[in-house]
Design a protein that fits this description.
There is one protein chain. This protein is of the alpha+beta class. The chain is built from 14 helices and 7 strands. The protein has a 5-stranded antiparallel β-sheet with strand order 6-5-4-3-7, with no helix packed on it. The protein has a two-stranded antiparallel ribbon with strand order 1-2. A hairpin with a 6-residue loop joins β4 and β5.
């Protein structure tokens, strides 16, 4: 570049031959500006380091606290936020990479080039100052030679004038005239010598001045131009290099941002809602309807019946240990019901207890497997020592083996205990999972919009309060005894004290006439006259096939038409009936499997 510009004639040496001081000032300011750019890179690097440090501190401060329970049931929002924090930590790492590369690849290069430029400028200015000083010295010599010539010339002229005066004066002797002539000749000779010296010095000065302004000083100026252009190119390259440092980490930063977007996309509100259900579901059934007490009809058994009803309603609110939820709230707060402190988790609601028991069984199974592996290893080691006593004493292993066996027995015993507790907990909740478990039985009758449960209130008192010699009385008594036994076991029962499961055959059976008590002697087969009293509420069509897998439900095929005799009560099941070759059939089907058309 510099050689091409010199060939084109656009050089500082030619165009700025008389701007020595300005060029010296310009190059100094240029280097100062270049070093200021280096300070900018240094401060920016420090900011990047500080930014990365604050990002890492931010990630640390907002890192969610770890707990075993949260790890088992982590919400998608929490998982996404953790992933975002990881990406932010990676971003902090990339900012540290940027800071390090700015220091190593940009700042150090700027400082090195600045040092070289200062040395080259100092060398060039020293050379230029020497050339200028030499020229000034030569000009001083020329000035002295000129002044000597001027003095000798004036003295020669004066001597000539004195000689001519003496020669014209007849009063002076020949000797005085000769003296003036000799003085004139001497002064003329001195003047000629001074003239020759002045001419010589002038020639030397002109030659040196020409050499100075056309060759020597332009070379110095061209060097200054070259180092200034080198500074300019360095500025350009280092700015690009600083940008390249950003470009190098931009793909990783882009992946971090993509990771944040992916974390956001992974959030699923429905899954989080299910986790809330899984985390806080108690497993209790909602309480049944409170029966109407007709105070206008005095009944000596009313007090007993009311007491029986209150006890039944209370049992519907009880936990697995028989403690009411209201008392639990007072004791441990609204969320204390989900915190089990007992070894068998009996103070937890049924669903939470099953979860804790299942986790405990899995934990014990893992410990048993680990301890069994350790025991097997000790057995093998003992066998090796017995086969070759040089390797070790079998007695040293035997004590460890006995301890391992004892630990294994304790673990197995504890595992069996928790397996039994889990089996009991599962058996206790079988009734609650049947489709009829949420259909409340009050005073021996179904509680639905089309049941006739209030017509025979007195009969229900009689059935529940008195013993009958017939089979129906025996059935009623057995149901009452069964319900009491279930309440003692912590099971959920209905308002009449009888089991609400379809397996019990009480309360939900339609082999009894509407309005009769449970196990009434007025039983008759199911026929069309009965269903006229229990009129359908509408019709429904099966959207999907359904195979009945639980007690109280009936199968259906896709597109099948059925009668709706009871709408969904909020438990997800609808009671329907149909007529087949076997007669009328009724049962429960999933509400989401059918499309209902109710009568106006």
């Amino acid at each position: 570049m510099a050689a091409q510009e010199i060939e084109n004639g656009t050089t500082w040496g030619k165009e700025l031959w008389d701007q020595y001081d300005n060029l010296a000032t310009h190059t100094q300011k240029g280097i100062d500006f270049f070093e200021r750019f280096g300070n900018f890179i240094r401060d920016r690097s420090a900011i990047e380091v500080e930014y990365a440090l604050k990002l890492r501190r931010l990630v640390k401060n907002y890192q969610p606290k770890k707990s075993k329970e949260d790890e088992e049931n982590e919400f998608s929002t929490l998982i996404a936020f953790k992933n975002v924090l990881k990406e932010v930590a990676d971003l902090a790492g990339q900012r540290e990479v940027v800071a390090e590369n700015l220091q190593n690849q940009v700042l150090q290069g700027i400082m090195l080039l600045s040092k070289i430029l200062r040395e080259e400028r100092k060398k060039a200015l020293t050379q230029g100052a020497g050339l200028t000083q030499s020229l000034h010295t030569q000009i001083g010599t020329l000035d002295r030679a000129k002044r000597s010539y001027e003095k000798a010339f004036r003295e020669a002229e004066k001597a000539i004038e004195s000689y001519h005066k003496a020669d014209a004066d007849f009063h002076l002797s020949r000797a005085d005239v000769e003296k003036q002539r000799v003085n004139m000749n001497i002064r003329n000779s001195q003047s000629e010598d001074a003239k020759s010296e002045y001419a010589n010095q002038l020639q030397i000065t002109n030659k040196q001045q020409q050499q100075h302004y056309q060759i020597a000083l332009p070379e110095v100026f061209n060097k200054l131009q070259e180092l200034d252009e080198k500074r300019t190119r360095g500025m350009k390259e280092f700015i690009k290099r600083a940008a390249d440092v950003e470009y190098e980490v931009s793909p990783i930063i882009a992946r971090c941002l993509e990771g944040m977007v992916k974390a956001a996309d992974s959030i699923n509100e429905k899954d989080d809602s299910m986790i809330v259900i899984e985390k806080y579901q108690s497993g209790f059934q909602p309480p049944g309807d409170i029966p109407f007490e007709d105070l206008s009809k005095p009944d000596p058994d009313a007090a007993n019946n009311s007491q029986t009803h209150n006890s039944s309603t209370g049992l519907n609110h009880m936990t697995g240990k028989g403690t009411t939820k209201d008392k639990l709230k007072k004791r441990v707060g609204i969320f204390g019901i989900f915190t089990g402190n007992k070894e068998d988790f009996s103070d937890l609601p049924p669903t939470q207890r099953r979860k804790k028991l299942t986790a405990k069984v899995q934990e014990l199974q893992q410990k048993v497997a680990q301890e069994q592996a350790a025991s097997d290893g000790l057995m093998k080691m003992k066998g090796v020592y017995e086969a070759n006593s040089m390797l070790g004493d079998p007695r040293t292993v035997e004590e460890q083996l006995n301890e391992s066996v004892n630990r294994l027995d304790r673990l197995r015993h504890e595992l069996l205990r928790y397996q039994k507790l889990l089996e009991q907990a599962n058996n206790q909740t079988l009734i609650q999972h049947s489709p009829q478990s949420n259909r409340v039985i009050q005073n021996g009758q179904r509680s639905s919009r089309h049941s006739n449960g209030s017509s025979n209130h007195e009969n229900s008192h009689e059935d529940n309060g008195e013993d009958h010699p017939d089979d129906a009385g025996s059935l009623s008594r057995s149901a009452s005894e069964s319900s009491v036994q279930q309440a003692q076991n912590g099971l959920n029962i209905n308002n009449n004290g009888s089991s609400a499961s379809p397996e019990s055959g009480l309360g939900t059976s339609h082999t009894s006439l509407p309005g009769s008590g449970q196990g009434s002697t007025n039983e008759q087969p199911m026929n069309e006259e009965y269903y006229e009293a229990d009129a359908p509420l509408g019709t429904c069509r099966a959207l999907y096939p359904f195979d009945a897998t639980s007690e109280g439900s009936i199968p259906m095929s896709e597109g099948e038409e059925l009668q709706v005799i009871e709408v969904d009560q909020g438990d997800g099941w609808t009671r329907v009936r149909r007529y087949s070759s076997k007669g009328w059939e009724e049962g429960f089907v999933p509400t989401s499997y059918i499309e209902c058309t109710l009568y106006a």
